[in-house]
Specification:
The chain has about 230 residues and is of the alpha+beta class. The protein is about 20% helix and about 35% strand.
Length: about 230
């Protein structure tokens, strides 16, 4: 069993990426082993608003469709559709909609699906953003694996660095007696030791433990929405 937490460090200015500082602190504090490079790709689409009608008292919130290619799923891409958020109940509590996830073969099949969305299905889905991590760094410190990379928005030459993304996984390989809570505490103690402030933290929600094997995909999709 393993537990993961994803951290996102937003870029403060265009010429000040947080990634070099993070990697320097990692090398200084832990002297990690080097692992193979990694990459990530995301395309985000938003549902087009329904035309207003006399019976529509309130415009429903949009749905979102993401296509992601992740380093732990090299032979597949994943399509995640997040349903419209439910109306706020009277008691003020709400739950975040849980995405439905399916896998499709990577490569040409993924490209064909994107082409379908941007052509025949364009009246239903509007493309919003494209995010990538290219040539990311990866390290290992005992039971902990770290992936870190610059998250860039855009296609081609005109890309904006949105920040650094860091995935920290505690595999519980050395100490098999660690449970999920222990692994969470191990990751947070590891991150705190780095002394890096201002990161947003993403973990699997309780409702994401659906047993379909896509819990990590849903985590990445929530992080890649880049909501403020």
């Amino acid at each position: 069993m393993s537990t993961r937490i994803i951290y996102f460090l937003p870029t403060i200015s265009a010429d000040n990426s947080p990634l070099p500082n993070l990697i320097n602190r990692l090398a200084t504090h832990y002297n990690p082993s080097i692992l193979p490079r990694w990459s990530l790709r995301q395309r985000l689409f938003r549902s087009m608003p329904a035309p207003p009608t006399a019976t529509n008292e309130q415009t429903p919130s949009p749905r979102f469709l993401q296509i992601v290619s992740l380093p732990d799923h090299l032979n597949a891409s994943h399509v995640a559709i997040t349903p419209s958020a439910p109306a706020m109940p009277l008691d003020g509590t709400s739950t975040e909609p849980i995405a439905t996830v399916v896998s499709i073969p990577s490569g040409p099949s993924t490209d064909e699906f994107i082409q379908l969305l941007t052509s025949k299905l364009a009246p239903l889905w509007q493309q919003r953003q494209s995010l990538t991590v290219l040539d990311g760094s990866a390290f290992e410190v005992g039971d902990i694996r770290i992936r870190a990379g610059e998250l860039r928005q855009g296609l081609g030459g005109a890309q904006l660095v949105r920040g650094a993304v860091v995935e920290v996984v505690c595999k519980g390989r050395v100490d098999e007696n660690l449970d999920g809570r222990d692994r969470e505490e191990t990751i947070r103690a590891f991150w705190e030791e780095l002394g890096i402030k201002g990161a947003r933290e993403f973990m699997a929600a309780d409702s994401e433990g659906m047993g379909d094997g896509f819990e990590d995909v849903r985590m990445w999709c929530r992080m890649l929405m880049l909501r403020s």
